[in-house]
Amino acid sequence: METGNEVGRTGGEALVERLERHPGMKARIERVLDVLENTSGDLIRADEAERHAIDELRAMGQELLQGWAEGLWHVLSEFENIRALALQFFLEARKKSSVRTVYMLRQVPM
Questions:
Q1: With contact defined as beta carbons under 8 Å apart, do 40 and 33 qualify?
Q2: What's this model's pTM, rounded to 2 decimal places?
């Protein structure tokens, strides 16, 4: 039975803990909740509340995609670093292998 506390958990990690790693997203969600709770007291009409909600959700979507792209960029740059190291290792191994092959060929009696 779900109690609502499980929402947003990934491998036992609470939503609050995840939001602490993303302060911009946490602030954006708080602003959405401010619209829901009308904390400013100035949202009298439904169309005003709708406009504020849409503005906040649109901004949240932009922040979300920006964060996603930055995370992807980090992963891809790490992948590129690993690929470059692997290529360097391969070329060094190939160079050493060719030197060994030439040395071994010189040892073969003719």
A1: no
A2: 0.57
* The one-letter amino acid at 106: R
Q: What is the rounded CA–CA span in Å between residue 92 and residue 84?
A: 12
Tell me how far apart the alpha carbons of residues 92 and 97 are, in angstroms, rounded to a whole number. 8
Q: Which residues on neighbouring strands pair with residue 10, listed in sequence order? A: 13
Which three-class secondary structure state does DSSP give residue 13? strand
- What does DSSP assign to residue 40? T
Phi first, then psi: what are they for 36, rounded to 5°?
-60, -45
Q: What is the three-class DSSP state of 1?
A: coil
Tokens read off for 29:
């969600």
At 65, list the tokens. 């995609």
- Tell me how far apart the alpha carbons of residues 34 and 67 are, in angstroms, rounded to a whole number: 23
Percent of the chain with pLDDT over 90: 48
